[in-house]
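Most newcomers find our protein records easier to grasp once they have seen one. To make this concrete, we reproduce a full record directly below:

===
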Amino acid sequence: MAQAYKHKEYFQSGFNDGYFETWQDDDPTQYTFTSVADAQTRCAFHNTYLTYQNPTVTYALEDADKTLVVTFEFDDNEKQMAWKTAVTDLIKNSTAWADVIFLKKIEWLNEDGEVGSTASF
């Protein structure tokens, strides 16, 4: 797959100790994922989010395991943009991922794998 059609999405959870928390950066009560599998389960990504246009999807934990980084890589720009349109519809309908998950930011990577642009939420 081409490096030019790749982006990273950063997720955090506002669910801690059995109840929903108001989330803020560096909040010591913010949920810490126990593993990548735990983060995937808590995020409960919609199937379309992970499979539409056949992206290569990789996962990693950052920020002392408080952030799940999901990297999507596509064969070409057309597939990446079709995926983005489909996922935007899921987000509008609040069905892209679990309600207690926050999309912190998205980094769109250029051909060299460097961050070309960032959207923070």
